Amino acid sequence: MREECKQTGPSLSAQGYAHQKTKHMDWKLEESAQKTDSRVLQEQEVILEDTGEDSISESFRLLQIDVECEHREGEMLPTGSAMWCSKNVQRKQRHWEKIVAAKKSKRKQEKERRKANRVENSGICPQHSKRFLRSLTKERLLEAKHSGPRLCIDLSMTHHMSKKELSRLAGQIRRLYGSNKKANRPFWIYLTGFTTDSPLYEECLRMNDGFSSYLLDITEEDCFSLFPLETLVYLTPDSEHALEDIDLNKVYILGGLVDESIQKKVTFQKAQEHSVNTARLPIQEYMVRCQNEKNYHSEILAINQVFDILSTYFETQNWPEALKKGVSSRKGYILQNSVDDGQPKELQKAKLLEVS
């Protein structure tokens, strides 16, 4: 027993010494940390004194944000993986996910349909890139500038028009130009009496994307001074002469006028003042009035509707087909039932008499 005590005695005293040394080191570290914290607090107090009340309020604001963040984190689900949502929000979320999935499915089906059409029509009509189609359109329009029919839009009467009327006219110019771009045999368009500082020009820039790059001529000159008077034909519904054909040596004029007050014979009187020939679309020769609720009949068309008629006739050489495209039933006119070969009823009777 004594030998055992002698053997264990030194080991126990060594363990006690090590324990005391560890406690002494911990105490020194704690004292050092307290001194460091005290020094940091003193520096912060000096900074607060230098910065004043604004920094104090900023510090409280940051503390408030921290508290709000802690409050929001407290609203997390126990798993900490998702925010808590009410049943109504969850229902709306599921509904929105269904809509997104349906749109994706629809886009995928449309893409597959277009792909199938390309494969099916690959031997019939080869697909061209947009760049190629744009260059082809530009080539056709520039060719029309040298050898195609010419059409002037007289914009010298816009100074009396209201903002609403100018907006409508700008939209008609856009549709007219769009139809001309799609035509196989386009016209060359002139916008005459058109100044770049006019309200109409600003409206065209606002409403028509790419208006400044339209392939047409814009000039401040009046159409009557731009071309020889004997080559001009002013198209007006008040003329006594029906337009029979489109002559490449003539320049056809459309009055760029949207007048909600319906002032009659404005374009006709302007043509007479300059001793210019006039013509009207052959609506009376190929169409008849139809009954409607308002008993309304009018031959006044928008400039883009008139252009659609001229363009269709220039390609087909068929007035009934052209008039059908430009004159809607709301104008109170329909095609004659007896017209079947592009000839008016009076000419058909005359041909029958000649044969007999």
Automatic annotation (TrEMBL):
PROSITE patterns: SAM_MT_TRM10. CDD domains: Trm10euk_B. It catalyses: guanosine(9) in tRNA + S-adenosyl-L-methionine = N(1)-methylguanosine(9) in tRNA + S-adenosyl-L-homocysteine + H(+). GO terms for molecular function: tRNA (guanosine(9)-N1)-methyltransferase activity; tRNA binding. Keywords: Coiled coil, Methyltransferase, S-adenosyl-L-methionine, Transferase. It comes from the Eukaryota. This is tRNA methyltransferase 10 homolog B.
